[in-house]
User: What shape does this take?
Amino acid sequence: MSKPVSALDGATYQGFAKVEELGLRGMITIRGDLKSAGMKKAASTAIGLDVPGQREVNMTGENALAWMSPDELLALVPYEEVGDKIAAIDKALKGKHYLAVNVSDARAIFRVTGGGAREVIAKLSPVDMSSDAFPAGQIRRTRMAQVPAAFWVDEEGGIIIICFRSVAEYVFNLLKGAAENGSQVGYLS
Amino acid sequence: MSTRLATGGRLLNKDRAYNFTFNGKRLTGYPGDTLASALLANDQMLIGRSFKYHRPRGVVASGAEEPNGIVGMGEGAAFEPNQRVTTTELFEGLTCASQNHWPSLEFDVGAINTKLSRFLPAGFYYKTFISPRPFWKHVYEPIIRKSAGLGKAPKERDQDKYEHFYAFADVVVIGGGVAGLQAARAAGKAGAKVLLMEQTAHWGGRAPVDGGTINEGKEKVNQTPVDKFVDEIVAELEAMPNVTLRTRMMGAGVYDHGYVLGYERVNDHQPGAAGPRHRLWRVRAGHIVTATGAIERPLSFAGNDIPGVLLASAVRDYAVNYGVSIGDRTVVVTNNDDAYLTAITLKKLGLDVPVILDARVLPEDSALMAEAKALGIRVMMGHAVASVKGGKRVTGVEICSQAGEGAVLETVDCDAVAMSGGWSPVVHLWSHCGGKLTWNSDFAMFQPDVDNPPKGVDGEGFVTAAGSANGELDLNGVLADADAAGKAAAKATGHTPGKAKTPTAETAEQAPMAPVWLMPQGAGIKKRMKAWLDYQNDVKVSDVQLAAREGFESVEHAKRYTTLGMATDQGKLSNINGLAILSDALNQPIPQTGTTTFRPPYTPISLAAIAGEARDERFQPIRKTPIHGWHEENGAFFEPVGQWRRPYCYQKPGETVHGAVKREINQTRDKLGLLDASTLGKIIVKGPDAGKFLDMLYTNMMSTLKPGKCRYGLMCNENGFLSDDGVVARIDDETFLCHTTTGGAETIHGHMEEWLQTEWWDWKVYTANVTEQFAQIAVVGPQARKTLEKLTDADISGEALPFMSWADITLGDGIPARAYRISFSGELSYEIAVPASRGRELWDLLLAVGAEDGITPYGTEGLHVMRAEKGFIMIGDETDGTVIPQDLNMQWAISKKKEDFLGKRAQERSHMADPNRWKLVGLETVDGSVLPDGAYCVAEGSNANGQRNVQGRVTSTYYSPTLDKGIAMGLVLHGPDRMGEVIDIPKVDGSIVKAKIVDPIFYDKDGEKQNV
Assistant: This one.
């Protein structure tokens, strides 16, 4: 057998919300001057999405472009496409000061779905998860209990969570515990 | 006796009964009962013993303020001590037991303390056990420890689940009485997002017990009884989408920036139900309304602690809410009109109230007084309790005049006493974050000073008190105040309140209360020694007076000296009475004495709720490499390295740890070893100024490194101390990969970013921490090349890929890899980095193809021993934050050409350049034994403190399987100049080990083995 294996190999849990590890996803950390036209064009052309504003994420299918900091983006693409995308960015920004690096294997990615998905996250992260404060298109970089995490709401209302690969099991356990049947809070709709 | 009445009990559901046990005794109650009401219904008046004198204790209150009724609840994994019976809802199968007695609740040996109470006054412990000094630690303290504490600590792990919940709201209203409900309605109607929390299971607070009629607006229309009003307003709030109502949720604390802790007891009343037992809400509020009500104060008279003496409001609560009478004959004693409600309630239920003792002398009767008299109750104005008769139960009351010294005028038989000393607003949550108080002399109480609320960043108050908590003690005032508070909170959060009518209430005019702090006023010492202030901790009027006489004038000092208010109830009943007595003793007005500090939580919350999800597998994140699973399956003996768990060694069946380490090292040196080095920090540094940047970070020169090559480097902080080390690989002109120690990955990345963002913000450098992108496997030993060659077509010979270089190769079934020719063991070694998702695949592959060459995985101890044999330093062993590279004879790694680097100037300071700094050497015991870790090397003589002089210490020490003897490194005074000298190193047992100072490189000094 020779295929890349994600941290939890697609583990799932069904409580009052469903938790799934989404397997491997291509991820590229892009650092540079996000205000420069060249940078914007290189990133948006390679990923096929506009460069998002502060605390925002643009997405379509498996692709997403997320704001990480004033000089950092995170691109999500299918795992197999990372090399090509980085090559495209490298080509577009040749001679410019920037950094585009593959971090696909450094991460784990989860999706939480179901009516109580927002409450699952609200048990673990100090973020206002109400739908008016955190609609689709927003991203938060924060902590989930004791580890760093970032998350956003996808087009179908599911919540996508990314964390470091080494703590994938810890994060999966957190989400599992928070989604356990009978522990619905009934505060967020 | 206390008993269940035939009628009444508005909170009960009498359709079914609940069975429960107290001290093994089988009792029954009803759904809706609290444990307190159920115990009282079964005539279980005696519930526990007090802390110091082991006095008999019964329930005195009906809510969160209860100091006496505390029990150990549950058994085994569900056991919890110190649970208040008044706030515990009854459920089927509840078990509880009394506390703080031996051998039994009825007969307690410790009660001898009450006979000795003359000899156990305030400050007794401090005075008695202070000398001789060593006795405290070895004799007194252990004995006192055994007799201290109320409940027993649980013996088993808690079986329940707990969680946190982060919530955000415009307005948080704490308290679900009529004030809280009205405030929530006012704020909710204005459009604010409102969270209303109530600590009990019921809405309306005590208003339904006290009664009243509520009008819609000022006109007498829709006169609604208050209990119906509560039902209507709750229904209205439930229908509002922007309002959330939660019962069984206490506002535990108010903190800066509108932060509120809500303690929700989700399943305490239904153990075994799905979901968490407690949920801790961590709420950000735009504005907070504290509608926390008021607490009735006891009166201080002799025998006021005897079971059967209760607060007048509690007696009323038990009768109305739970259909429980405390006694057949209840004497009411009061300084205000409110207690008359109790007398009237009891009388109307057909119970006997032989007399109301009212300490006041009034010119005319108020409405309530007239009503009581009309019911045929005898009222004695200007009279007081001289003392309560009885031991474990009230049997009667001796009556005296309030004005005198307590000469008994009359004795009345009774089995209950209902007392009321007036009311104190619950100002705790207002005060938690700095809200100030003001003294209301009409009602003798502290109330929120509305001009000095807790203030936020904008200088505006973020807490508004409402209703009784704000000093409004009658229903009409409560409603008006709460409505205003709700509107103010809505306004403060950017909403516009409408013009809805404020409900009004009709209440009878009450006569003014009279402050009564001691009963009778001239009570002598014998009475004062029996007049309890703090029931749980046994603090009496005489104790506070003694403290004042002994100079404890500050209320905070007096509190700690006497332990007043330091029990589990935190002085909810005793606080005001105690400081009134203190003020009197100090001959100063009460406001001048002030209060002690109100600190969260309002009542104790479970530690497990604070821990939330952080227990068992969620206690702490454990970082796992992609190869962790293999380690677990193959006998790894793990050690924590930061948050990682790394294999220390792999034990085979029957093998000791020592044996496994020895085998791993021998096999690696002899043949082939495999190490999971994935945890090593890996940081990409890229940009036109990357070389310049790394020259500043490392002590040696990095900018001259050629692409394809590696260089070992040292990193110091700006004080010159060594902070990290590792191999830097140059990837291309603009890109470097910096390896850090396992523990240093995040901190070094942060260190780099800090310098880039704060000092060298104009340098063109980007960094990225790619530690987890790669699984890194060290293939180590004479057979390393031969084994790897089986997996790749690439030329990895010594010529094509020499020592301290790297190359991108492909291994096995197309695994992209970067091979670094670096060695931390002294052997021929390749560190192979592959994408993390293929790490396990490569590990398995290497084990398979290496089998014929005698491959073995080795752990961190093997790694440590092999590096020590080579004299390589380890950050954290040879360094401890006070060591500079020069101490480790690493001048070779400090560039002399560079103008500057972090730590350069610091290392030139006189103390850093001092030739007397201890320096690194090898240490070899004369007898071949292994030196103890961290041991000191002693010198002649002793210092000014009489301690033996030292001249060095051991930094690393191991048994070397390669050399079959103990080897060590240490920092020794003038060490490198003293080669061959033998020095003394004492062990903990006092014996001395003799060790020879030697070169720290014990193995392959010329590096021939790693460089093939």
In short: Chain B touches chain A through 52 residues (CB under 8 Å). The two ends of chain B are 96 Å apart (CA to CA).
